[in-house]
Amino acid sequence: MKEQPWWYRRLRDSGSRLTEPRKLVLEILRNSDEHPTATEIYVQAHRMKPSIGLTTVYRTLELLIQLGIVQKFEFGEGKSRFELVDKPGANGRHHHLVCLKCRKIIDYSDISEEEKEFLSRVKGRLKSKHDFKIFDHLMWFYGVCRECREV
Amino acid sequence: MKEQPWWYRRLRDSGSRLTEPRKLVLEILRNSDEHPTATEIYVQAHRMKPSIGLTTVYRTLELLIQLGIVQKFEFGEGKSRFELVDKPGANGRHHHLVCLKCRKIIDYSDISEEEKEFLSRVKGRLKSKHDFKIFDHLMWFYGVCRECREV
DNA sequence: TTAAAAATGAAAATCATTTTCAATATGGAT
DNA sequence: ATCCATATTGAAAATGATTTTCATTTTTAA
Q: What is the DSSP string of A56-95?
């Protein structure tokens, strides 16, 4: 007997049906390390089951958010990103370097061990001080790149 | 002789012109306690100078974000909200805690010694790796607050 | 004062997300 | 397994925020 993911029960308990598209969206979320957008999820889902529609992906995500199975993030890109709640070890990768002169933006994702440790300490502190459970973070650094300093 | 806001200099230094629409948008941001949306800023600006266009408000905000003068927020409403960044170096609200459920935002400025050290190490690393000289930073943490976890 | 470059505004285009509505799939009852 | 009420779905249209295009205006430096 195969063990069912905890969200199957939560879906059922809410009176919602456990449909193919819903299982697919959940499977895709389970298997992605990034925080996919609705469209990214749709593209994957569509490859596996071409009959699926983007609308359904949106509706499913909305439902899963209501049920506390999925979290919605916004990083200022003008679109939302989604992640399974309590998915361990999918944090970081959202560091931006902005040059104040030429306005170039560099995304960098290489996080050092030190940085990870620091972040987990900060998260611990935020938990105890503000009683927040942190799922993710975003860091912006503003400066001037070499080319612009040379002028 | 009137003292000019620090952002005037930063605009100038970036090679951008200090135009009427830009001053207006900055003035509106300076005088608002809330985080206005682009449209809200436009409505105010338009009252003071009817020739102004929504496009210019968007373009100005984009520029100010690139220059680190303005921050963009997204609360999951499908539109962005904007706020003036505090003067760099001075007890700025550089840290934000966002509750992913109720969309509440907590600004906190109490930075520990450990945190300051960490940031200076990160800045050093960014300097050597990406050859950026960092002037300022911004950190966002996404999580769920106590009230929302209790449900 | 003048010309080049930067900035502007209006309208059109784009993009993410939501709504509408007719067709389909699901799960409990039979 | 079959049936049926209804939850769910997909396609297309609608919406709303943001971006692009392009001709005109404003700003700055010489």
A: HHHHHHHHHHHTTSEEEEE-SSSSEEEEETT-TT-----E
Largest CA distance in chain A: 68
Question: Which residues in 106-145 of chain B line strand D, with CB less than 7 A from it?
Answer: none
Q: B97 in helix, strand or coil?
A: strand
The predicted model scores a pTM of: 0.77
Contact (Cβ atoms closer than 8 angstroms) between residue A112 and residue A104 = no
Reported as a single tens digit per residue, the pLDDT across B74-117 is 777 889 989 887 644 433 456 778 777 776 777 776 667 777 78
Residue A122: count other Cβ atoms within 10 Å of its Cβ: 20
Task: Please tell me the distance from the alpha carbon of residue A90 to that of residue B91, in angstroms, as a whole number.
Answer: 31
Calculate mean pLDDT across residues B69-76: 82
Distance from CA of A130 to the nearest CA of B (A): 8
Nucleotide closest in space to A81 (CA vs C1'): C16
Chain A residues with at least one Cβ partner in B under 8 Å: 71-76, 78, 80, 97-101, 103, 106, 108, 112, 114-115, 118, 121-123, 125-126, 130-146, 149
Residues with Cβ within 8 Å of B76's Cβ and at least 6 positions away in sequence, in order, are A72, A74, A80, B100, B103
Binary contact (B100, A71; C-beta < 8 A): yes
Mean pLDDT of the region A82-96: 66
